[in-house]
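Illustration 12: RDD family protein.
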Amino acid sequence: MGFSLDRAGFGMRLLAGVLDTLIIVIPIGVVVSLYTGTPSLNWTQGVTWNSLYLLYSIILPVIWGGFNIGKRLVNIRIKKTNGKELNLADMFFREFIGKFLIGYVTLGLSTVVSVFMIVFRKDKRAIHDFAAGTFVSNEG
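Figure caption equivalent — predicted structure in token form:
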């Protein structure tokens, strides 16, 4: 297994994240704007939106074999380092503990460290990948 070829780098992961967010936020934003009569993204700042997006980030990859919408579009997926199937506990540790909680406690510093880990580590694993025993595979 050659890490440099089978592991998704920072650019692909970033693109997948941006696409995923846009594909989810834009349609919901249109509906919210039609309902309220005011175009605004303020609804994305609340606990409700962040909780729903966290649930999406935890549940969809388990159901969809490691993909979310953005990852499916750029053909990368989350996989377990031990080869087993992803489960809800894995994704909870990856998304809630590894990204949200550690990011919150470190005031975002862990996110910056994770970017450097993805860019410079041969295995392309970030803090949230280590928390869950995962990596992001380049399926292309």
